[in-house]
Amino acid sequence: IVLPSSIRTIPEGLFSGCARLRSVTIPDSVENIGSYTFKDGLESYDLEMGIGPKASLYYDFYFIDNFGLETGLSYAQVNASNERNNGTITVSNLFIPVRAFYDFHFGKFTLTPQIGIYAGYGIGGKTKVDGGTNDPFSGEGALKRFNFGAEDEILFTFGDHFTLGLGSQESVINLCEDKEVKTSSSSLYITVGWKF
């Protein structure tokens, strides 16, 4: 559905119950969107993900020669934007991952696939929409502070210390406090590290 540019307000519940609705193009002329406009209808809200820093400390527990579990603590900042309302969101999270891994040795090179789960907690952030700034964890459309999901990574170790990795995280719970709004998080990341 493409709404005409003459529309200034989308009434409350306009698309409520439209279960097959997949896309609505909202023109810049819209200044107000009523409550529950997309209730039980439009299932996604497109955000363009940005680049954010991530810092981690991990410890490996080996059970047999090449197999073990890794856990630790990570800090990550997630950035996203939405062109429709000139909105941006920045959220800072702490994550505790638990991943199983297996080391494949090839001379001075080691390949380590890892898979596991993580629990995260939002420690801060801000949302900017049309010039206003809000806390992303309070108010209408607030995000939950707790996050839980799955993650995987392929880690390449050169020599005994230098590491390079490629991984992903995917939340498995709805991250929005409003049960009517389905919000999830997925990320792809590159790591550069040093093993001690």
List the helices and strands and how they pair.
Elements lengths: L8 E2 L21 E2 L14 E2 L4 E9 L4 E16 L4 E16 L1 E3 L2 E21 L2 E3 L11 E13 L3 E10 L14 E9 L2
Parallel strand pairs: 1-2
Antiparallel strand pairs: 3-5, 4-5, 5-6, 6-8, 7-8, 8-9, 8-10, 10-11, 11-12
Number of helices: 0
C-alpha Rg, in Å? 21 Å
Structural class: mainly beta
The count of strands amounts to: 12
* Contiguous uncertain segments of 5+ residues: none
Principal-axes shape call: elongated
Q: Sketch the major β-sheet.
A: 10 strands, antiparallel
Q: Oligomeric state of the chains?
A: single chain
Assign a percent range to the helix content: under 10%
Helix and strand pattern: EEEEEEEEEEEE
Observed structural traits:
196 residues; mainly beta; 10-stranded antiparallel β-sheet; two-stranded parallel ribbon; 0% helix; elongated
Structure, described:
- This protein has 196 residues and is an all-beta fold.
- 0% of the residues lie in helices and 54% in strands.
- Strands 3, 4, 5, 6, 7, 8, 9, 10, 11 and 12 form a 10-stranded antiparallel β-sheet that branches. It has a two-stranded parallel ribbon with strand order 1-2.
- The relative contact order is 0.13.
- The mean pLDDT is 82.
In short:
0% of the residues lie in helices and 54% in strands. By secondary structure, the protein is mainly β. The strands form 2 sheets. Strands 3, 4, 5, 6, 7, 8, 9, 10, 11 and 12 form a 10-stranded antiparallel beta sheet that branches.
